[in-house]
Amino acid sequence: MTSQVSDAPAAGAGAAARAADLWKVYGSGEAQVIALRGVNVELERGRFTAIMGPSGSGKSTLMHCLAGLDTATRGQISVGDTALTGLDDGGLTRLRREKVGFIFQQFNLLPTLTAEENILLPLAIAGRKPDPEWYRTVITTVGLADRLTHRPSQLSGGQQQRVACARALVSRPEVIFADEPTGNLDSRSGAEILNFLRRSVTEHGQTIVMVTHDANAASHADRVIFLADGQIVDELTAPTADAVLDRIKRLDAAPVAGAAE
Amino acid sequence: MIKASLRGLLQRKLRLSLALIAIVLSVGFLAGSLVLSDTLNARFGSLFSTINANVAVVVQPKDPQAVDPVRLTDDQLRTLSEVDGVRAVSPDVSAQGVIPFRSDDGEPVSADAMLGFGVDGKDDPLGLVELREGSWPQAADEVTVTAYTAELARVKRGDSLKVYVPVLNEPRTFKVVGVAGYSGGRDSLAGESVVMFQQAYAQETFYGATGRYAGASFAADEGVSDTVLKQRIAEKLPSGFKALTGEESSEEQSAQIGVVFDFIKYILIGFAVLAAVVGVFLIFNTFNIIVAQRTRELALLRALGASWGQVAGSVLLEALVVSVLGATLGLAIGAGLGAWVEHMLIGEFELPSAGIIVKPITVVLAYALGVLVTLIAAFVPAVRASSVPPVAAMRDVVRPDKSLVALSVVGAVLAVPGLALVLTGALADMGGTAFLVLLAGAVLLFVGTLLLSPLLARPLVRGLGALIGRGSAGKLGVRNAVRNPRRTAVTAAAIIIGVTVIGTAATVVQSFKTSLEDIMGDSIGVEVMIQASVTAAPDGRQGFNPKALDQVRAIPGVKEAAAWHFDALNVSVANQPSAFGIFATDVGQASRMFPMDAVDGSIRTLAAQELVVDDNTAETLKLKAGDRTPVVIGGVTRDYTVVGVYKTTPIILGILVGLPAVEDFPGPLAFQGFVSLNEGVDAAPVVAQIEKIMKDYPGVQVGDRQSYVEQATASYDLLLTAVEWLLIVALVIAVLGILNTLLLSIVERTRELGLVRAVGLSRGGLVWMVTVESVLITVFGVALGLALGVGLGAAFTKALITIEFASVIAIPWLDLLQYLAIAVVAGIAAAVLPARIAARLNVLEAISYE
Ligand SMILES: Nc1ncnc2c1ncn2[C@@H]1O[C@H](COP(=O)(O)OP(=O)(O)OP(=O)(O)O)[C@@H](O)[C@H]1O
Ligand SMILES: [Mg+2]
C-alpha cells in the first residue's frame, strides 16, 4: 500500500499509538470481567486500521484505553511519543486536546450548537484558532459547505456523522479513533463516510483506527486486527471484503487458541 | 466553550426559570426592605428640610426625653439672638398630644401628629407659617389653628374649640381667632394638627412658668454660613443645650422617625433570609438535575479535550448568568415592593412622597446576595459535573449514588447532642440561661435532622405511602418517591425549614394564649379594663387622669376600680436599670383582683418608699423581704423597703410601688385601670359607661375581660401572622422545588413511562402516579417539620413554664392540621404540570427515547 504523504508525519515513521501487555479488568470478585487480556498492538502512522471481533470481545475497551478515555488495569500505552501510564487528569486532558480525535456511533454532536460550531468545538475548547486553509479543505471534502449553520436536529444521520468526521479532522490529531462510525447508517451514507476516511488517510496522511462489525467497512482499511475474548487473534493487511468474511468464518469455527488460558 | 454553555442555558429555560424565581424572591425581599427604609427616610427627610428651609441653626436640649428638661430663659434667648450673623429667631414653645375635639359630634380628631405651639402674636420670622385670616392669639382663651386642623375639627374663625391639653390632663374650651397655613399654600406639612396658643399661656401650661423656651431656630445673615453661625452660637450656649445646623437637625429627626418602621424592615429581611436559605436548596437541586441530564454532553466535551476546570466553569457560568438575571429582576420587584409597602404604611399621611429611592448600596447588596446564593448552591453540582468521566460519552456509566452513611453520621453527631441540649434546656431549672441552651440545641437538632432526612425519607415515605399509595399506579408513585432518597430529602428541605419555624411559633403562641386564658378565667377579679394607647415608652405623661376613676366607682354594679401608673423611662432598682419598668398602684387592691401569692413578707397596700417584687425579679436582683434598696424614679433616688415577694404569673410580674410614689413619676397620668364588678352584673353596659367617661382622654380604650386577653396576646398573634407569611414564602419556593424534581424524574424516566403506558397504564393512572410522588414528598416534609416544630415549641414552652411565664403546653392542632392541608394542596398543585407532561407523552417515542 503506497500512501501519499502530505501534511501528516510519514507512514512507518514509528507508531502513532501502541499498547504493550494491556489488561483491562472491570469489577471484582464474582462480577469480575476481564475485557482485555494482555493485548500487544502497534498502530502505524498514516495508516487506516480496522478492529473487528464478536460483540463483547473488547474492541471498544481497547479503543477507549488507547485514546486515554479509560485507564488500563495493567500494561503500557503510548500515543505518539507520550506514555499514558501515570498521566493525571490534566495530562490526559491535554492528550485528548492535542493528539486524538473521536468519532462515535451516536451522540456525536452537541444539539445546541450549529454544525460549524460543533466542528470547531475541540479548537474552541483548546483555545486555538483553526488554520483557515485546512478548515476549508476539510469542509469541502466532507461536502458540508451549505449545511454549516444547521443544527444537528436539522441534519440527517449521515450528515451528522460527516460533521463528526470533520470535527475529528480539523484539529489534525495524531490518531482518530472511530467506534462503529457507520453502525447507525444505511449502506450509501456509510460508504460515503468510509470513502471520506479513506481519503483523509491517503491524501492527508491521517492515522485512523476504526472499530467495525462490517466486513465491507473493514475492506477500506489498510490493516484489520481481529479480537476475540480480549485478545488479538489474527490480522490481515490490504484486506478485501471477501478475505475479511472468510477470516471471520474461520475464527467462529475454531475456538480461540489460548482463550482458556 | 462559553458559547456552548450559554446556548445550553437557553435550552434549559424552564428548569432554570425555577431557580430564577428563587433568586428573584430572596433578592426581592432584601431590596424591598432596603428600598422601603430609604424611601421612608427620603420622605421624612424632605419634610424636615421643608421645616428647616430657612433655618441655619437649631438650639435644643441635649436630652429632650429628660424628666425635667432644661429650658431657655428670656435672657439666654436674647444673648443668643444677639450673636453676630443672626438675622431672625423663632423660639420653640411646643407640646405633643394637644388634641382638638370635633365641634359637631364631640369626638377627638385623629391626625398623624397633634401639636400645640405658643406664638408671640407676630408673623413667623422664618416665614414657614403664614396667617391666612383673623389674627394670632392674644389672650389665654384664644387659639389660632392651621387650615388642616380647622377642617379636621370642623371649626372656622369665631367658633369655640375644645382642646385636650396633655399637661393639664383635661380638655379646655378656646375661641378660634385665626386660621393659618404654611408657605407655598399648604394646609399641613404631614397631616398634623396644630393649635397655636398665646405664648405666655403656653409657657405657663407646658413649662410651668412664663419666659421659658424649649429651644429656638435661627436664620443667618447673608454671607454667614450655617456652620459658622453654629460655631458662634455654640460659644454662647447655656449648659444642657446643643446646637445643630438645619441640615443636621433634619437628618436627626428623620432618623428618629425611621426607627418606628424598623420592624417591618426586619420582617422583610427575615423573608429574604428564608427565601435565600430555601433558594439554595432549590438551586442546588436544579443544577444537580441539569448536570445529571447533561452527563453525555459533558462527557463529550471532556472527550474532546475540555479540562475539568472548563466543565465546572461552564456550570458556574450558567449559574452566574442566572443569578445576575435573577438579581436584576429581584431588584426591580424589590423596588416595587418597597415602594408599595411604604405607600401602605404612610400613603394615607398627608406627607408628599420624595420618590422611590434605590441607593447604590441596595444595588450592590442585591447582586451580592443573588450571586452568592447561586454560586454557593451551584458549587457542588459544578464539581460533580467536572468529575464526569469522558467514557460516559460512549457508554452508560452508572455513577452509584453516594452512600448515605457519611451524611447520616454527621447528622447524628449534630442531632443527638442537639436533642440533649433541648431536653436539658426544657427540663432543668436554669432560669434565663435555659433559653440559650435551648436555642443552641434547637439549631443543632434542626441542622442534624436536615442531614438525616435522606435516611429518614425511605421508611417514612414508605409508611406514608402505605396510606395513599393504593392501586398499581399509586404503588409506582410511592416507589418513585423512595427511589432517590437524597433527592426527595433535598426537595422536601424547603418545606421542613418553613414548617419547623411555623410549628415552633404556633405551639409557643398557643401555649401562651391558653395559659393566659386559664389564669384570667380562674383567678382574676377584673371584669373591665382601661388601657392607654402608647406611642412612646409610657412614663405617666400619656394616659388618663386617675381622678376619672371616681366617676367609674360611682357606676352602679362597680365593686372596685384601680389605677395603675407605669414608668418605663430611666427607672432603676438596686442599681440596675429595670427593663420591665415600675408600676405604681394600690397593691392591696391589686392582690384582690389578681393572683398575687406572697412567698416572702406580705403583699399589702404600700406606703411611700415601699415596694413588692415578683420572685423571679427578686432572685435576679438578690432582694428579699425587709431589704432596703435604692430606687430611681423620675431622676430622684430614694431608699425603698422590700415589703414582700410574690409569685410570678404571666399577668403580674415586676416591681410594684405604692400610689405615693406617683409624685416622683414624670407625669401624673394612669396607664391602665382595672374594674371589678359585683356578682351578677353584666359587663357590657358598664363598659359603655366607662367609655363615655374616658372620652376626654383620647387614645384610651375600654374593654371587657375577653378583650383584655385578646389585647395581651395581640402582639403574639401579629408575630404568628408574620411567621405564617414566612411559611407561605417557603411553601411557594418549595412548590417550585417539587415541580423541578418531578420534571426531572419525568425526563429521566421517559422510557419507563412509555413502558408502563405500553403495558396498559391509563393516562389517569400516570397522573395519579406523579401526584402521589409529589404529595408524598410534601407530606414527608410537613411531617418532619411539624414533629420538629411542635417538639421545639413544647420545649420552649416548658422553659417558659419553669420561669412562670406560662402554665400549660397547648398544641394548636387546628392550625397544624391547616398547615398540613395547605401543604397537601401545594403538593397536588406542584404535580399538575409534570403530570400533564407525563400524560401527553407519545408511547412509542417515549420507549425509543435516548
Ligand atoms: N463498565 C463496565 N463494567 C463491567 N464490564 C464492562 C464494562 N464495559 C465493558 N464491560 C465488559 O467488557 C467486555 C468488553 O466490552 P466492550 O464494550 O469492549 O465490547 P465490544 O467488543 O465493544 O462489543 P460490541 O461489539 O458489542 O460493542 C464485555 O464483556 C463487557 O460486558
Ligand atoms: Mg463496542
Tell me what the structure shows.
The complex is a heterodimer of chains A (261) and B (850). Chain A has eight helices and ten strands. Chain A is of the alpha/beta class. Chain A has a domain at 15-103 and 174-253: P-loop containing nucleotide triphosphate hydrolases (Rossmann fold). Chain A has a six-stranded mixed beta sheet with strand order 6-7-8-3-9-10, sandwiched between helices. A four-stranded antiparallel beta sheet of chain A has the order 2-1-4-5, with helices on one face. In chain A, a hairpin with a 2-residue loop joins strand 4 and strand 5 (82-83). The two termini of chain A are 36 Å apart. Mean pLDDT of chain A is 84; it is low at 1-12 and 256-261. Chain B is α+β, with helices and mostly antiparallel strands and 850 residues long. Chain B is built from 24 helices and 26 strands. In chain B, the strands form four sheets. In chain B, strands 15, 16, 17, 18, 19, 20, 21, 22, 23, 24, 25 and 26 form a twelve-stranded mixed beta sheet that branches. In chain B, a hairpin with a 2-residue loop joins strand 22 (628-633) and strand 23 (636-646). Helices cover 56% and strands 16% of the residues of chain B. The chains are: A alpha/beta (261), B alpha+beta (850). The A-B interface holds A 60, 64, 69-70, 89-90, 93-94, 96-98, 102, 104-108, 110-113, 117, 121-122, 124-126, 167, 179 and B 1, 3-4, 7-8, 10-11, 296-297, 300-308, 310, 389-391, 393-395, 850. The complex binds adenosine-5'-triphosphate and magnesium ion (MG).
